[in-house]
Amino acid sequence: MEKKDEKGGNHVRRKKGGLVTMPFIFANEVCEKLAVVGFNANMLSYLTTQLHMPLTKAANTLTNFGGTGSLTPLLGAFLADAFAGRFLTITVASIIYQIGMVSLTLSAILPSLRPPPCKADQVCQEASSGQEAILYASLLLGAIGSGGIRPCVVAFGADQFDESDPNQTTKTWNYFNWYYFVMGVSMLVAVTVLVYIQDNIGWGWGLGIPAMAMFLSIIAFIFGYPLYRNLDPVGSPFTRLVQVCVAAYKKRKLNMVSDPSLLYQNDELDDPISLGGKLLHTKHIKFLDKAAIVSEEDDTKSPNLWRLNTVHRVEELKSVIRMGPIWASGILLITAYAQQSTFSLQQAKTMDRHLTNTFQIPAGSMTVFTYISMLSTIAIYDRIFIPMARKLTGIDRGITFLHRMGIGFVISIFATLVAGFVEIKRKHAASAHGLTDHPGSIIPISVFWLFPQYSLHGIAEAFMSIGHLEFLYDQAPESMRSSASALFWLSISAGNYISTLLVTLVHKFSAGPGGSNWLPNKNLNKGKLEYFYWLLTLVQVLNLVYYICCARMYTFKPIQVQKKVDSKGGEDGLELGNRV
Q1: C-alpha distance across the termini of the chain, in Å
Q2: Which of 92, 124, 336, 339 has the CB geometry, 3.0–4.6 Å to 118, for a possible disulfide?
Q3: What per-residue confidence (pLDDT) applies to 163?
């Protein structure tokens, strides 16, 4: 937009947002991931070696923490969309997260906050209830803080690109690849540098470094405020959804109108929440259309939204309902993925991890193979696959996000299938060397046998998780995109909780005489971990069938968008178009 200066000349005022804001936004995300992954990757070792928890309890503690940390984004997204806006929510949440990280670091430094080291002639003393309470309080502060960061950072970053500008139409979906790539790099640093520091220098430094990095990221994020494109909060999206439900129920006895154009429209009411464009009427879930039928009792100028809603608001609810089945299909991939930081890590601890005679890979760093394969896949996908696929499909993004998710599901099935066969190989090696009854001994089999399962999980995530995130952001109503991003983290939460439930049930019902169990607490060599992996494989196959059915029936949201065009007069104009 041009403005005249005091001398009558023209100068261009820089539009806010764009690529220049990415370093400030990504800095916050990088440090949050350093903190979470740097601890999470090695948390099983911390809980078992420092707090002396049994393996099953430690594994469930890990997945419960991951689940809670992924559940709180619902609250953060609600506050951002309804009241505070994304910038303020990220800032306050980052400060809360900082407090949790400092507390967690102190719990690792101070000897009084953890049990004494194990002695050779004594049974290891587990952490007291008070010591566990301090640990969990620190983790809870971290979960609350991440709840404000996770859903808002991804949506806030995407907000910096104006979808109505034809020069930025491809920037948004490219952004999701960049976002995940940067996040993957920070995870890679966490599972290598930070895990090495934790294992070889100490947990105080291993947790203190990301805590200091988080402090610096808060400063950087606030410093970038003048550059950001900030969208104002437009009220609670959940309230609007409930209002449509109530209005439709109150008018359930009314006959449906013959012409959808007769349904209630109010541009003045919808403009603050339509942002990128108004949703068009769809023929699905017709019962909800009754919320937009104008009756004699309704005041169309100042409507009671608990009795009368616009077509746009009705379609917001329809969009959320249509997204539900596709969203739910992503949960079980997380359940399979969660095993990398529990039982796959425990496998690694029993295998030969030496790269040289003097250096061995920390067990918690094995997920480096996941992140390397994920980053490589993202780079190849963005630079090579998309241009090639675009020529064949004519789609800007190469393939749809639904196809991308489906590919990820298939690869994840192979990951857990391969993991089962690798576990058989590991146990055969233990038996051949007479180490079945020695759980603390290192089996002379290379840890690189775990490379396929870790790498396949990384490739699967590059396809499925990014496709899932794209789907939720693109198909959600424009005023609910923080909430849509929160749904991504909610699927991670649900996946972790299902993992906890599945591990608990398998541990309980697979128990046999003489202490035998698929998932033993002490000696993995006597378990049947391969059966557990194959059970996950079967569940994922069923989930893939479910996903294919949902994807075939899915209807993309129809939206009327405004595109900025340059008219012959050289001034900005508006062009209406439909994006499906």
Answers
A1: 29
A2: 124
A3: 63
Enumerate the β-bridge partners of residue 538.
none
Helix (H) or strand (E) run with residue 577 in it: strand 572-579
Look-up of token digits 């399962």: 453
Hey, what domains does the chain have and what are their CATH numbers?
14-114+124-232+330-559 (1.20.1250.20), 237-319 (no CATH)
Backbone angles phi, psi at 278, to 5 degrees: -85, 140
Integer angstrom CA distances of residue 340 from 42, 178, 198, 210, 337: 11, 24, 19, 22, 6
pLDDT digits (tens, 9 = 90+) for 311-351: 999 998 999 999 999 999 999 888 888 887 778 888 888 89
- The CA distance from 339 to 412, in Å, is 12
* Low-confidence residues in the chain, pLDDT < 70: 1-15, 39-42, 66-67, 70, 120-122, 162-173, 275-276, 560-580
d(CA 342, CA 55): 9
CA distance 301 to 157: 36
Residues 486, 50 contacting (CB under 8 angstroms): no
How far is residue 127's CA from residue 7's CA, in Å, rounded to a whole number?
73
Q: What's residue 10's pLDDT? A: 44
Residue 430, burial from CB neighbour count under 10 angstroms (0-12, 13-18, 19+): buried
Which pLDDT value is given to residue 11? 42
What gap in Å lies between CA 86 and CA 529, rounded to an integer?
43
* Contact by Cβ (8 Å): 559, 578: yes
The pLDDT of residue 550 is 94
Give Cα 137 to chain centroid, integer Å.
23
pLDDT digits (tens, 9 = 90+) for 474-500: 888 877 777 787 788 788 878 878 888
Instruction: Give me the sign of the Cα torsion angle 370, 375, 376, 380.
Output: positive
| Amino acid code (one letter) for 512 | G
Local structure of residue 300 (DSSP, 8 states): S
Q: What is the pLDDT of residue 26?
A: 83
Secondary structure class of 414 (helix, strand, coil): helix
- Both tokens of residue 542? 């069923």
Structure tokens at 568: 């012959």
Q: Is 561 helix (H, G, I), strand (E, B) or coil?
A: strand
Dihedral of CA 20/25/26/31: which sign? Answer: positive
Residue 168 has which token pair?
Answer: 């930025």
Spatial separation of the C-alpha atoms in residues 143 and 76, rounded to whole Å: 11
At 246 the pLDDT is 94
Question: Which letter does DSSP use for residue 277 in this model?
Answer: E
Rounded Cα distance between 194 and 190, Å, is 5
| pLDDT of 249 | 93
> What number of other Cβ atoms are within 10 A of residue 119's Cβ?
9
